[in-house]
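Q: I have two molecules that I believe assemble together. Could you output C-alpha cells for the complex as a whole instead of separate predictions?
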Amino acid sequence: MTGPTRREMLLLGASAMIPTAVAAQETPRRGGVLTVHFATEQRILNPSLQASTGVYIVGGKIQEALLDLDAEGKPVGVLAESWESAPDGKTHTFHLRRGVTWHDGKPFTSADVAFTAMEMWKKILNYGTTLQQFLTEVQTPDPHTAVFKYEKPMPQGLLLRAMPDLGYVSPKHVYENGDIRQNPANTAPVGTGPFKFVTYERGQHVIAERNPNYWRNNMPYLDRIVWRVVGDRAAAAAQMEAGQILFSPYSSLTIADMQRLGRDPRFEVTTRGNEGNARTNTLEFNFRNAALADIRVRKAIAHAINVPFFIENFLGPFAKPGTGPIPSVSTDYYPTEPMPQYGYDVAAANRLLDEAGHRRGAGGVRFNLRLNPAPWGEDIALWSTFVQQSLQQVGIRVEIVRLDAAGFLRTVYNDWNFDLATGWHQYRSDPAVSTTVWYRSGSPRGAPWTNQWGWKDDRIDAIIDAAATEVDPVKRKALYADFVRSVQTELPLWMPIEQIFNSVFNKRIRNAGNNARWASSSWHDTWLAS
Amino acid sequence: MRILNLALRRLAASLPTLLLIIAGMFLLLQLAPGDTVDALMAQMGGGDAALAAELRRFYGLDVGVPAQLGRYLMRLVTLDLGFSAIYGKPVATVILERLPPTILLMAAALSFAFFFGLVLGVVAARRVNRWPDTLISTLGLVFYATPSFWFGLMAIVVFSVYLQWLPAGGFSDITQDLTGIAAVFDIAKHLVLPTLTLGLIFLAIYLRIMRASMLEVLSLDFVRTARAKGLSETRVVARHVLRNAMLPMVTLIGLQAGTMLGGSVVVESVFALPGLGRLAYESVVQRDLNTLLGIVFVSAVLVIVINFLVDILYARLDPRISAGS
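A: Yes, here they are, computed for all two components at once.
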C-alpha cells in the first residue's frame, strides 16, 4: 500500500486542524438528523438488562445511568448528583437529581433506582449479577436518596467505575408487573434521556426523537437519531461515503476501509471517545492438553510470535503490543513497574520446546494443536492465521477451526473441545468487573469468558478475592500489580495485543468523542454542522 | 372444479414433504454447536451460568430434542409458528413484516430478468452467430459469472457514492417523512440497484434458455408452414415461435421463484434490505429455531403454490398439456 503523498499530507494536516479550531468558536446549531451505523441487531434495547456496546449505542441515548465518564475518564454524575460511602465499604449513598421525569411524564425517584438495582442489575444484567452479588437491599429514605447496602465491602472506586456501564435505570412503574424479560419496553425503552424512543423496524432502523422535557436546559441539539441496520461492512463504508450514515462506531468497518476513509478529508477515523472500551486479543490455552499444561510450551508459543510485526503489517495504527490483562488506558490500575513479557525469540522458543521433551519428528513437526478463533472481528481472523504460520516455524502444526458465535462459545467454554482459542477480552473500567473472571477458578462450566482452561492457582485466587473487596485504593492497586505479575509469570492465557475501538465520524458531527465512552453515552451535547 | 380438485390433491401430496422439510431442518440445526442462549451470550459479551440456565428455561430449551420437536409440531398443527427468540414477537408477525420487501424485490427482479431475458433471447436467436448474438451472449456470460455481492458493491460505488443518483441502501428514506406517491417513488428508487443486481444473474440464464429454445422451435416444420403460407417474419415469431419457446422459461421461473426467496441473502445484506433471506441467515447465526422453521415453512408453502400456478399456466400455453392428467 502506498502512503499519502506530500501534498495529501499537507491537506490532511490542514483539514485535521480546521474543524477543532472552528468547533471551539461555533455556537451549537439546533436540529438535524444524526444517522448511525447499527451493525448487529440486538434482541433488546434496554441497557439495565443487557450490558453490551450494541445496546448502549441505542439505549444509552434513551435511558440514563446514575453516572457517566467525562473526557478524562473520571466518573461524573448524571441521574445521581452526588454520592458518599461509609468507610467500611458496606454502605453507598447516592443523592439523586431532582426534577427529572420519565418520557411518559412520571417523576423519576429513588424507588426506580431501588427496583432496577434489585430486580435487574442483581438478577438479570450480565456483569451486573456478579458485581451486585453482595448487594442486600437498596433503602429509599426519601424520593431523592438511594442507599445501597452490601454484605461484603464494595470498593467505592469499583462501584463508581462500573456504574456508567452497569448503572442504567429503568422505570419501576413500567416494569413492576409481569415478567421483566417479556416486557414490551425491552424493545421500546422508556427512559429519562435526551432522546425518546419512536420506532424499531427490525432489519431496517431504530428512530428516536428529541425529548423536549429533558432535564439539561436547551438540550439536546439534535432533532432525531436514526440507527440504520447495515450488516455488510463494505456496504456500510459506501453508505458513509454517500452520506447516508454519519457515524460508524466500535470498529464496525473493515480495517482497509477505515484506513481509506481516514485519508478522506470528509471523515475522521479515531480512537478518541472509546478510551473506556479497551480490549485485548487473547491466546487461551487448554490445560487438559498435556503439552500446554507445561509452562515451557506456553512460553515457547509466546516467544515464537512476532507481535510488533503483526500489528504493524495487519492492524496498522489501531493497535499496540499488550503488556498484560490490564490495558494501559486503565490509569488507576495499570501497573507502574514493568511486568514479565515474552518478546519475539525463535531460538528461545525452540530451546524451550526441546527442554519440554517435544523433539521435532517427521517433517520437522513436534506436535499438532487446534486453534479456535472467535468470529467477532477481522483482527481475530488475521491473528489466528498469523499464529498458525508463526508456530509452524517452531514445529507446532496448527489446525484452525472456525465456528460462528454460538458454536465458538459452546465448543470452547462449555465443551472444552479446543487446544488454543483466541478472541477478545473487553476491559470494562475495573479489573473486578471484566478481567479477573478470566483467571479466577471455580466458574461454572459453560460461563463464557471465564476461566475454563482447567487451570487453578490458589494464591492468584486469593489475590483476586482480596482485591475485589479492598476498600483502600492504594492497597487495591498494589494487589492488582501483584495479580498482573503472577499471571504474566504463570501465563494461563496470554494477552499480547491491546486495542481501542475506532470510531468513524463524518466531520459534520460536533462534540464527537468528547468523553471516554462517547459512542455509548447520551449525546445530549452532540450537534450537526450544516 | 377440476382446478380445485387438482389443488386439493397437490396439497395432500405436499403435506409429507412439508413435514420432512421441517423435521429435517430441526434436526440439522441441532447438529450446529451451541444454542440460542450461547448466541445471546455472545451478543451480550458475558453472563454467568445461573443466568444461562434461567434463559434456557425461558426459551424452552431445558427439555430434550424430541420433546422440543414434538412441541413444535403440535403447535404447527394449529398453525402457530411460535415465538421468535431474537425478535421477541410471534414468528408469524416477524415473517409477515419481512414478506412485502422480499416479494417486491423478488417480483421486480424476476420480471426484469424475465422480460429482458425474453427480448434479448429473441434478438440473439434472430441474429444467430452474427454480432448482436455474440454481444448479447458475451454480456450474458459476464453477468452470470460476476458474483452478485461484487456487482452490488460496484453499483453502489458508481451510482451512490460517485454519481449520487441513487441511495446506497435501505428500503426507504427514513430521515424524511414521506407519504402517498412520494413514498412509492422513494421505495422504487431504493429498489433500482438491488433489482438490477439480483436480476442480472437471472437475466443471463433466461437469455440463454430463450435463445436456445427459440432456435429449436424456429427449425420445426410448422414454422416453415407458417412462412410458406405467407406470414410476415414478425408474425411468425410473435404468434407461432414465441408461444412455444416460452415453455422452458415458465418452468424455470417456477423453479427460481423458490431459490430467489432464500437466495437473495447477499443482495439483501449489501443493500441493507429487510428481506426473508437475511432473516433466515440471522436466525441460523442466532440459533433461533422457531424463526428459521417458520421461514422454511412459509417458503415451502410459497414454492408449492408457485409450482401449482406454473402447472396451470402450462395448460394455457400449450393445450396439449392438460392440467388434469
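A: One point stands out. Chain A has 17 helices and 22 strands.
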